[in-house]
Amino acid sequence: MTDRSVAAPEIRPGSVATERAVDADASTGSGEGSRGTGRRAQRDRRAGEGRAGRWIMRIIALTYLAFLLVIPVGLVFYRTFENGIGPVWKALTTDGALHAFQVTFIVAGCAVVLNTIFGMVASFLLVRHDFRGKGVINKLIDLPLAVSPVVVGLSLILVYGRETTIGSFFGDQGVDIIFALPGMVMATAFVSLPLMVREVVPILEEIGTDQEQAAATLGATPFQTFRRVTLPAIKWGVAYGIILTLARCLGEFGAVAVVSGRVVGQTQTATLYVEQSFENFKQADAYAVAFALAALAILALLIMNLFRPKEP
């Protein structure tokens, strides 16, 4: 048989076929190179846009915080010490200022204790139990965040005022609620109500109930389970809730201004003292007490963050 297979034509250097093959390879390589360069340029452009976007967001956030928080608070601190520390100490140690601080600490302390107890009970109720009306209670806890403190104070007067049934009953027993410390504690506790709950609830949801069920299986009582298992797991949430509640109580003004009567030397808190001093052109006293309130809140937050264990 005759071999009819056709041999491939030989391509010699310098021939027309050789030049065409080289041109085809060059065009293919240049096309791939241009596509790779285009992709790199597109990635670089996107990275540049991302960096620019991050810088723009940082500038907006820092500018907002500077004009809303840093500059006003910084000016208060500057005005407080512009004449030295002597006038500041003198303003803080007057009888009116000392009594205002005393009333503030009493009201804030009582409100913190009440909200800590209620906050932990409400947190366990919302996380560990299912019942009818759970959603309503959950929304009512957030109500103080939406209602004006002035409205809160007016509402308390309408319920516990001296001319109301409840107020007259307690008045006959020798206990005044409105224009006295009990009403101020109630108003302060109301405005700071959600803070403890909103700190503890997420932690309880995160830790679950496995360890508590294991402790109960081993014979632990509910109190032992809470003290040895649950409380160590939520202690930093509780501590942070206490700090936030304390800071909120120290700075409360609106509701307390309505229910206190602003009686100097009796129901005047530190925030009311600042307002009165500023209106009476005693700016040094107002700046000093305002600085003390801000410093107490900032110090509490710093101590909390200092002793709080670092997250892994």
Structure explained in plain terms:
With 312 residues, the protein is mainly α. It has two domains: 30-82; 86-307, MetI-like (MetI-like fold, Orthogonal Bundle). The chain contains 14 helices and no strands. The chain has helices at 16-81, 85-92, 95-128, 134-141, 143-146, 149-160, 165-172, 181-191, 193-207, 210-217, 222-250, 254-260, 270-279, 283-307. The longest helix is centred in the N-terminal third of the chain and has 66 residues, at 16-81. Residues 1-9 have low confidence and may be disordered.
In short:
This protein has 312 residues and is mainly alpha-helical. The protein has helices at residues 16-81, 85-92, 95-128, 134-141, 143-146, 149-160, 165-172, 181-191, 193-207, 210-217, 222-250, 254-260, 270-279, 283-307.
